[in-house]
Amino acid sequence: MSTNPFPLDKADLMKAYRTMRTIREFEERLHVEFAKGDIPGFVHLYAGEEACATGIMMHLTDVDRIASTHRGHGHCIAKGVDVHEMMAEIYGKATGACRGKGGSMHIADLAKGMMGANGILGAGAPLVCGAGLAAKFRGDGGVGITFIGDGASNQGMVLESMNLAAVWNLPVIFVVENNGYAESTSVDYATAVDSYVDRASGFGLPGVTVDGTDFFAVYEAAGEMIRRAREGGGPALLECKMVRFFGHFEGDAQTYKAKGENDYNREHRDCLKIFAARVRETGVVTAEEFAAVDQEVGALIEDAVASAKAAPLPSARDLTSDVYVAY
Ligand SMILES: Cc1ncc(C[n+]2csc(CCOP(=O)(O)OP(=O)(O)O)c2C)c(N)n1
Ligand SMILES: [Mg+2]
């Protein structure tokens, strides 16, 4: 009998692995499918960054709200949005999460507390201040979490939101997903501070930087911040240093990356490999058990792609529905 040295039991370790594997498989498959030319719009892939979304979302329930980015598939999957509905949405089909009218950058599922991917950099930050304020008034213990790229972190509304969250002591976490680039611009060029923790402290927020390729580092730091926010301790900032395996968008030639950078990251900084190796070596989960999850997830994604392709497009009649909310 192996002893479990992790802060999660075996069922939750399996759940974390399944979530990260589902995101990875979803993105790897989209990379292939997008190149065929059947998918409308832009697609930004989250492969390589799975430990961040998963390590955070393992602490949340549907009462908690998140606001995502243009690179939102991983956040959606980790927050529990249906994978079939997501795939159909990306294909622009009527069976999609937003009936095919949003596409990759506007997937939302309010019942799951997923307030939406967002094509406007930094726009999730004020949204979660609203979600945090609502949770505070309701007293339901909910938190609001916004994901912000290193590039988006320089947007005025992110800084205004940090100030507002601090002033109103909101249960809000600002997660900076620092993957080193904003499109082709390196973070060293575009951001004046070396650590986002310094920026958080300028607003009176506690901040922590973690290795975002280490699921357990993210899980533990996020857990502490979320617990504190639920108990009325206020907002915080979590910087996750991570890598993106693909280009900024599908079709990006990635000439700004160093030679061999992607190969190096896939070999040495793959959060899934790191997680699986660490768990396997303790014997808590076996290689066979992980392989069974891989197979199950492969079948899920295969089915999601097949049904998205077969689904109908929205009709012209749908053009004006879901545009305004009736109050
Ligand atoms: C307000 C705004 N400015 C510019 C853009 C164009 N744009 C889209 S993604 C991107 C870079 C984002 O970089 P980062 O925030 O680091 O996120 P990442 O793509 O690395 O996940 C830019 C400049 C935009 N969508 N919104
Ligand atoms: Mg970035």
TrEMBL record:
A Pfam family annotated for this chain is: E1_dh
Q: What is a single molecular function from GO for this protein? A: pyruvate dehydrogenase (acetyl-transferring) activity
Q: What is the lineage of its organism?
A: Bacteria, Pseudomonadati, Pseudomonadota, Alphaproteobacteria, Hyphomicrobiales
Keyword Acetylation listed? The answer is no
Which source organism does the UniProt entry give?
Chelatococcus caeni
Name of protein: Pyruvate dehydrogenase E1 component alpha subunit
Q: Which residue intervals define the domain Dehydrogenase E1 component in the entry?
A: 19-315
Which UniProt key words apply to this protein?
A: Oxidoreductase, Pyruvate, Thiamine pyrophosphate
Q: Report the catalytic activity.
A: N(6)-[(R)-lipoyl]-L-lysyl-[protein] + pyruvate + H(+) = N(6)-[(R)-S(8)-acetyldihydrolipoyl]-L-lysyl-[protein] + CO2
